[in-house]
Specification:
Elements (H helix, E strand, L loop, with lengths): L10 H21 L1 H39 L2 H17 L5 H10 L4 H6 L2 H4 L4 H4 L2 H7 L3 H10 L1 H4 L4 H33 L10 H4 L9 H22 L1 H15 L17 H8 L1 H8 L8 H8 L1 H5 L2 H6 L5 H13 L3 H11 L6 H26 L1
C-alpha cells in the first residue's frame, strides 16, 4: 500500500516517546533494568531458536505435503467431497478442509504454505481467501494440545479423553464464529473496492481442470516436494518479526517473578495479566467455569504461544487450581487462540492483506471467547 505523507515532527512523536519510555521504566522498576533487558533478549533468542525454527520446519513439511496433494489431485478431490459440509458452516470452498487438517497436525503458519499454492488458491474468491488465516489459526497445534491434555489424566487420576473431545468441539464452534465474522468484514472490504469476485482464475474450465508438472510420476513427486518445501522456508522467514516481538511482550506481561527473585533469564515477567484475571473473575467464572482466577493465565498465554500455555497445566493441576472442566475450556481456547497474536499479523502480511489484520484479530478474539463459552456449556451438558 502507498504510504501517506505527514508533517516531519508532530504530536504523535512525543506521545510515542512517552508511551515507550513510560512502559520501559515501569517494567524496569519491577524487574530491574539489567534483568529486564536480559529477559527481553533471552526470550527473543529462545523464541527464535525453539519456536520460529520449529514453525519453519513445520511450514517446510506442510508446504511439501500441500504441493504433493495438489500435484496428484487430492486437493481437487477434497474440494468436491467436502464442499457441501464446509460451505454451509464457513462459507468457504471444500478445499478449506485441507487447511483444517494441516494446521491441526502442525501449527498455524502451515496454512500459508497452502495459500501460496496456485491450485489451492483458485477455489477461493478474494473475500474468502482472507479468512484462511482465521480458519487455520482456529485449529493450530490442535493435535499437540489435545494429546498433551489427555496425558494430564495421570495427574488428575481420571480419564480426560471426553473433556478434551468436548474441547475440540468447542474449538469448532469458535472457528465457525471467527471465520464467518471475517468473511463478513472481507466481503464489505472487497465490495467497496469493486473486487468482490476478482479471482486469478474463475472460469468453469479452470475449476474443472488442474495443472501438473511434466515428467514421470517420480519426477513430478520429487519436484513438487522440493518446490513446496522452498515455499515453506519463505513463509517461515516471514513470521519471524510477529512471533518474536508480540510473543515476547505477551509472555513478559503474563509470567511472574520466579522463586528467588529476578535473574534476567528468558520467560520471566511482571505478571500483570493474571492480576487482571483475578479482578474480572466474576465474569470469567460464569462464562468459562474457571474455579480459580489463576486459570486466566492459560488463555492469555495461549495468545502469544500455546506451547508456553500448556506448560502451565501440570503445575495448575498439582496446585488444585484446575479440573476437568478447565481442561475442556483450555483445549478449546488453546486451539482457537494458539498463538494468534504472534502469528496473525505475520500471516495476514504474508497473504498481502495487511490492511485487514485488525478485522482478522477482532474476529478471532470473538471466536476464541465463543470457543471457551461453548466448551464450558458442552461440559455442563455431557459431563
Amino acid at each position: 500500500m502507498e504510504k501517506l505523507k505527514k508533517k516531519a515532527v508532530s504530536l504523535e512523536a512525543f506521545v510515542c516517546l512517552i508511551v515507550l519510555i513510560g512502559s520501559c521504566v515501569s517494567v524496569a522498576r519491577i524487574m530491574g533494568p539489567v534483568n529486564m533487558i536480559n529477559t527481553i533478549m533471552g526470550t527473543a533468542h529462545d523464541l527464535l531458536l525453539n519456536t520460529v525454527f520449529f514453525i519453519m520446519g513445520v511450514a517446510v513439511l506442510a508446504g511439501a505435503l500441500s504441493e504433493i496433494l495438489s500435484e496428484f489431485g487430492v486437493i481437487s478431490l477434497i474440494n468436491k467431497l467436502l464442499y457441501f459440509v464446509i460451505y454451509p458452516l464457513y462459507r468457504l470452498p471444500g478445499a478449506s478442509a485441507l487447511a483444517v487438517v494441516t494446521t491441526y497436525i502442525s501449527d498455524n503458519p502451515a496454512v500459508l504454505s497452502l495459500a501460496a499454492n496456485k491450485e489451492f488458491k483458485k477455489y477461493f474468491k478474494n473475500y474468502q481467501f482472507t479468512a484462511l488465516t482465521n480458519l487455520g489459526t482456529s485449529f493450530g497445534m490442535g493435535f499437540i494440545v489435545s494429546a498433551f491434555m489427555i496425558a494430564q489424566g495421570g495427574l488428575l487420576k481420571e480419564s480426560l479423553f471426553k473433556p478434551v473431545l468436548l474441547g475440540n468441539l468447542g474449538a469448532v464452534v469458535g472457528s465457525i464464529v471467527s471465520v464467518n465474522l471475517m468473511v463478513y468484514y472481507s466481503k464489505k472490504y472487497f465490495a467497496s473496492r469493486g473486487e468482490l469476485d476478482n479471482q486469478e482464475v474463475a472460469d468453469k474450465f479452470t475449476l474443472e481442470t488442474r495443472e501438473i508438472r511434466r515428467g514421470t510420476v517420480f519426477e513430478r513427486f520429487l519436484e513438487a516436494m522440493l518446490e513446496g518445501g522452498k515455499v515453506g522456508v519463505g513463509m517461515g522467514m516471514a513470521i519471524i518479526p510477529g512471533v518474536i516481538i508480540i510473543c515476547t511482550t505477551v509472555l513478559m506481561l503474563t509470567n511472574g517473578m520466579p522463586e528467588g527473585g529476578y535473574t534476567g533469564a528468558a520467560y520471566e515477567g511482571i505478571g500483570i495479566l493474571p492480576i487482571i484475571g483475578a479482578k474480572v473473575n466474576f465474569i470469567l467464572k460464569p462464562l468459562f467455569g474457571f474455579s480459580s482466577p489463576e486459570a486466566i493465565a492459560f488463555p492469555i498465554t495461549a495468545l502469544g504461544a500455546v506451547g508456553a500455555a500448556i506448560g502451565l497445566v501440570p503445575q495448575f493441576i498439582k496446585e488444585g487450581v484446575i479440573g476437568p472442566r478447565e481442561i475442556t475450556v483450555f483445549t478449546a481456547m488453546g486451539m482457537c487462540w494458539s498463538g494468534y497474536l504472534s502469528t496473525h499479523v505475520a500471516m495476514m502480511d504474508s497473504l498481502n492483506y495487511r490492511e485487514l489484520t485488525g478485522k482478522a484479530i477482532f474476529s478471532h478474539t470473538i471466536g476464541g471467547i465463543a470457543a471457551g463459552i461453548s466448551a464450558n456449556l458442552l461440559y455442563s451438558l455431557f459431563c
